[in-house]
Amino acid sequence: MSQGNVGVAGAKDRIAKIVEDVDSLPSLPSIVVKLIEVVNTTDSSAEDAAELIEKDPALTSKMIRLANSAFYGIPRSISSVTSAVVVLGFNTIRSLVLSASVAKMFNGKHALDMDSFWKHSVITAMSAKIIVRHLMSVRMMDPESAFCAGVLHDIGKLIFSQYMPEDYSAVCKYAKEKNIPIVEVEDKVFGVNHAKMGKILADRWSLPLDLEYAIVHHHDPENADKAAHLANIIHLADIITHKLGCNLWDGEVHMQESVKCRSELKIGDADFAKIMTNIENSLDKSQEFLAMLQ
């Protein structure tokens, strides 16, 4: 396949310019940067986090609404940000704030259908969280870190979609017409795929290393020399989400599951069947998180 087939001559040069001019990409809002610092500081309190969040009325409203939704299933009413932080925990709050902030930053003209994009991202996140909970007896891991990685795993697509909308529209059209995974078309046309572009944002935003590796290696977890467990979880969650039909377009062809993924995670056929059932039973809850991103 040549670039001419897709009709995006010069796309590699435009990608190179974006990579060189990293400062042109959005920075995380200061509130998010400070909140991540609070989450990563052992002596931080719920009041410290709440004080930051309350400086953003829109974010405060979203957090209170989501804390009281069926998505988290808190048995009592939450009326303050401090209560939300205490009940949900720091890593859950980090997921909420990062998700809402990324959605707000990339709200311009896009090549992608953003409803489909965020639906795929959120269900991948929810699936990752369910996988981690299933694996708790094998390995202790934070379900909310997996959820956060799931929400962010395709952020590289947002760079293509917003900063190169015409080029990416052509890439999507070609992938759709030829029934080729979009990641393969990206590599051919741009010389880099969305997973690798995601590293640029992860570095710019100083995301934790485990989140970065999950973003970069969600298509090739076998190449993750660090945080391989999380990379495999996000890879499997991504595959499951595609299998459930949550794609960028109807009938989108996706990458095949890594042959070692389930064995690395110690997930047998019976375990996988239970995970799928739990995910399918939880799909309706994702609508409330999606609503927060709009």
The arrangement of helices and strands along the chain is HHHHHHHHHHHHHHHHHH
The helix content, as a percent range, equals 55-70%
Uncertain ranges: none
Number of domains: 2
CATH topology of the largest domain: Hypothetical protein af1432
Name given to the CATH architecture of the largest domain = Orthogonal Bundle
Distance between the termini: 37 Å
Query: Outline, from the CA principal axes?
Result: globular
Q: CATH superfamily name of the largest domain?
A: Hypothetical protein af1432
Total count of helical runs of at least 4 residues = 18
- Main beta sheet: strand number and arrangement? none
Strand content: under 5%
Number of strands: 0
